[in-house]
Amino acid sequence: MDMIPQIIVSGLAAGGVYGLIALGFVLIYKATSILNLATGEFMTLGAFVCLSVMTQISAPFYVALLVTVVFASLLGLVIERVILRPLIGEPIIAVIMVTIGLASILKGLTHIIWSPEYRSFPPIFPPQPLFLGFAIVPSGLLWGFIFAILGTVIFTVIFRYTRTGLAMRATAANQQAALSMGISVKRVFALSWIFAAITAAVGGIIIGNISGISIHLGHIGLKVLAVIILGGLDSIGGAILGGFIIGILENFAGVYLDAFFGGGIKEVVPFVVLVIILMIRPYGMFGKPTIERV
Question: CA 163, CA 187: separation in Å to the nearest integer?
Answer without folding.
Answer: 13
